[in-house]
């Protein structure tokens, strides 16, 4: 998906037995993306290739610098933002457990 200067590209993904996705993201200075809550138990891993990510989750904002990585529970709303002056490039892995059917 591309908007203004934001680019997201799904590199590879699976859907069974659990969702696992590898993404490449680019955010221009001043851009952000508000992520919806994923399924309970979902996790995301982010690795910043260049720029600085401001990750907001659990009501707290965290700066993630170039070369740093972070893992967080993504089963609640979260935000990725580029508050810096340079383009933000990052790689993201999304892992969601398989839905268990109601019995």
Automatic annotation (TrEMBL):
InterPro entries reported in the protein's UniProt record: Cupin_2, GPI/OXD, RmlC-like_jellyroll, RmlC_Cupin_sf
Domain Cupin type-2 as annotated: residue spans: 24-94
UniProt keyword annotations, A-Z: Metal-binding
This protein's name: Cupin type-2 domain-containing protein
Organism of derivation: Nonomuraea recticatena
Lineage: Bacteria, Bacillati, Actinomycetota, Actinomycetes, Streptosporangiales
């Amino acid at each position: 998906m591309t908007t203004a200067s934001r680019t997201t590209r799904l590199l590879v993904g699976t859907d069974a037995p659990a969702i696992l996705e590898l993404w490449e993201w680019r955010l221009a200075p001043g851009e952000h993306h508000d992520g919806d809550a994923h399924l309970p138990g979902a996790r995301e891993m982010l690795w910043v290739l260049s720029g600085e990510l401001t990750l907001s989750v659990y009501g707290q904002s965290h700066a993630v610098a170039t070369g740093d990585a972070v893992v967080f529970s993504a089963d609640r709303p979260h935000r990725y933002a580029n508050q810096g002056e340079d383009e933000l490039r990052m790689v993201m892995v999304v892992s969601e457990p398989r839905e268990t059917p109601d019995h």
